[in-house]
Design brief:
The chain has 238 residues and is an alpha/beta fold. The protein contains ten helices and five strands. The chain has two domains: 151 residues, HAD superfamily/HAD-like (Rossmann fold), CATH 3.40.50.1000; 79 residues, DNA polymerase, domain 1, CATH 1.10.150. A five-stranded parallel sheet has the order 3-2-1-4-5, sandwiched between helices. β4, α8 and β5 form a beta-alpha-beta unit. Bound molecules: magnesium ion. The site of magnesium ion has 7 residues, from loops.
């Protein structure tokens, strides 16, 4: 057993925990409102797009491809079929822009991940399109700090339990860190692990957790990922 095999496993979310993601989607949503302006006001456009995304998550999955399909479906619906082929082409091009956008690591992430990789085996657990997520990991400059990268369809208790079981990790030995209470914190606490919330500036409506579930548990909240090594050091001596 090499030295690294004995290090405990730390789970890290990727989007809006390690690098910016949500803000890129908001930029495209603003363009979509402009595109729909002849047929629909901003509020109605936002509501229709969200309703389409909510309805189609199970079919499309999370990520850019599903977002693009949802915009197209919404555009056809709101324009009553008057959206033209060039405009649909623009929506697809916005999706390509999202996929090709340079990775912007959040403040302090590079140094913190570097430090954490010396004290823990880092297991990235992220949902979204497989290609997109793996390409982002590769382009982040952090890939060689990670022990494993798991791209999953949904981040719920069953998924976490199955990933940990497959990797031979006891939930009680596992800590997960991320920006989403719904995806990164509650399900991990639910299977007997520990979790740390590092909020990002905005939370997607479909990521908002059930307030009753949040009120029933306690977990640390950090301003920045850079504050994590100190918290983990405290836990390890507690
Ligand atoms: Mg996230």
């Amino acid at each position: 057993m090499s030295r690294s095999d004995s290090l405990s496993v730390l789970g890290l979310d990727a989007d809006d925990t390690l690098w910016e993601s949500e803000a890129r989607f908001h930029e495209v949503e603003a363009r979509f409102r402009d595109l729909m302006a002849p047929w629909s006001d901003e509020e109605a456009t936002d509501a229709a797009l969200l309703a389409t995304e909510r309805k189609n998550i199970a079919r499309h999955g999370y990520g850019v491809k599903g977002f693009v399909l949802s915009m197209i479906v919404t555009a056809v619906h709101l324009s009553d079929g008057d959206i033209n082929a060039n405009q649909i082409g623009d929506i697809v091009a916005w999706g390509h822009e999202l996929l090709d956008h340079p990775i912007e690591l959040l403040d302090g992430v590079a140094d913190t991940v570097d430090a954490l990789s010396r004290t823990h085996r880092l297991l990235v657990i992220t949902k979204g399109d497989l290609n997109d997520q793996m390409t982002k990991v590769a382009r982040s400059g952090l890939a060689n700090r990670f022990w494993r990268v798991e791209v999953v369809a949904e981040k719920d208790e069953a998924t976490y339990a199955s990933v940990l079981d497959r990797l031979g990790i006891q939930p009680s030995d596992f800590v997960m860190v991320g920006n989403s209470i719904r995806s990164d914190v509650l399900p991990v606490l639910g299977i007997g692990g520990r979790a740390v919330h590092v909020p990002h500036t905005t939370t997607w409506i479909l990521e908002e957790p059930d307030p009753k579930a949040v009120a029933a548990v306690r977990f640390p909240v950090l301003d920045r990922l850079a504050d994590l090594p100190a918290l983990l050091a405290d836990w390890s001596v507690a």
